[in-house]
Amino acid sequence: MASPSTEWKETVPAGEATAFEGYAEALREMQRRAAVGGGKPGRALHAKGFGATASFTVLPDLPAHARQGLFATPATYRAYVRYSNGNGTPQADGKPDVRGVAIKVIGVAGKKIIPGLENAKTQDFLLIRTPSLPFRDAHEFVKVITAASNPLLLLPRVLGRLGLRRTLGLLPRLAKSVGAPISSVATTPYYSAAAVQCGDYAVRIALVSQATDASAKPGTSPDYLAEELAARLRRGPVVYDVRLQFYVDDARTPIEDFSVEWLAADAPPLTVARLTVPQQDTASPRGRRVAEYIEQLSFDPWHALEAHRPLGNVMRARNTAYRLSTQERAAAAEPDVGDGFD
Ligand code: HEM
């Protein structure tokens, strides 16, 4: 096992920014098409979701390499969570899909990255249920995602864009990452699958539930994921450990290749915080107002402290894509300390 290293680096090829602008526009086209007839556009990806209030507690006595940015000082913050399905249009929870969770920690002091939002009080984390992507980079990601907007054309389009060899390698990984059904968002582990800075170090982030009562069987209703969580939250809180894995070297913990899982044997996870979704009634009038507000919010990996700058090509591509998607759907402003719900 290697020690955390500060020797990570990003590799930024010439012309990348232009390609990423094109990708953001292609996703916005998908978003506009999905909204036709339906009025206001939703999210370009992860269109179906449900949210709840939460709290985020940074633990004391962390080792020096973890005590950076948000994790520098033990504290408890208000937070929002939004669980989602990855598809650009809402579909039944039983359908194969990416599953995501987004966290917005509120009341975080310190300079933020996005120009114009330097004084925002929020730090976001976005995670999915797989520790790596089926795709190596943002180019493969967007080529496949935009092709997948029409399932009948998926295979010919992906073949045309990536070639036979790469398509044959990628499709089984793709099927695996979206195929297996989940029974509950409260027992599923989630992973950033992408690195952010942690001061001078680089880390991937994971959420691991403390709940041990995972049911083997997924529900049958189209919205069973929200219904299952609502039932749990009526009974009590759902608590997750927030874990960091530290970069050790480019072979084992690459920054630019998102298809590689950072293995626990190489980069052992360290619990640094706790995310608590407290007992609440999501069906009450307050619960519905909370949910509506969270739908309007914008979760973005670049809503971050300088100390947690997102790293690697997928993250750089997201820097353009999320802004365009949130602009298109006229998302709500970043919440300030006193805004929203307790
Ligand atoms: C490690 C890779 C990625 C992860 C973990 C991830 C995760 C997520 C999650 C959890 C959401 C839902 C946020 C919410 O609930 O509001 C989301 C939305 C979105 N993602 Fe990603 N994503 C990844 C890569 C990408 C890439 C490469 C792109 C495009 C270049 C992209 C474009 C988007 C867009 C446009 C949205 C909707 C933004 C909005 O309107 O709020 N994502 N993603």
**What is the name of the CATH class?**
Mainly Beta
CATH topology: the name is Catalase HpII,  Chain A, domain 1
Helix content: 25-40%
Q: Largest sheet, described in full?
A: 9 strands, antiparallel
Low-pLDDT regions: none
CATH superfamily membership: Catalase core domain
Tally of distinct domains = 1
What pattern of helices and strands is seen along the backbone? Answer: HEEEEHHHEEEHEEHH
Structural class: alpha+beta
Report the radius of gyration as a whole number of Å: 19 Å
Count of extended strands: 9
Give the termini distance in whole angstroms: 42 Å
What hetero molecules are in the model? Answer: protoporphyrin IX containing FE
Description:
With 342 residues, the protein is α+β, with helices and mostly antiparallel strands. Helices cover 28% and strands 20% of the residues. The chain has seven helices and nine strands. The chain has helices spanning 16-35, 138-147, 154-162, 164-179, 224-235, 285-296, 313-328; strands at residues 48-58, 75-85, 99-106, 122-128, 190-191, 196-198, 201-209, 238-246, 270-277. Helix 1 runs parallel beside helix 2 (138-147). Residues 23, 27, 43-46, 49, 82, 84, 100, 102, 126-128, 133, 138, 141-142, 192-194, 298-299, 314, 317-318, 321-322, 325-326, 329 line the site of protoporphyrin IX containing FE (HEM).
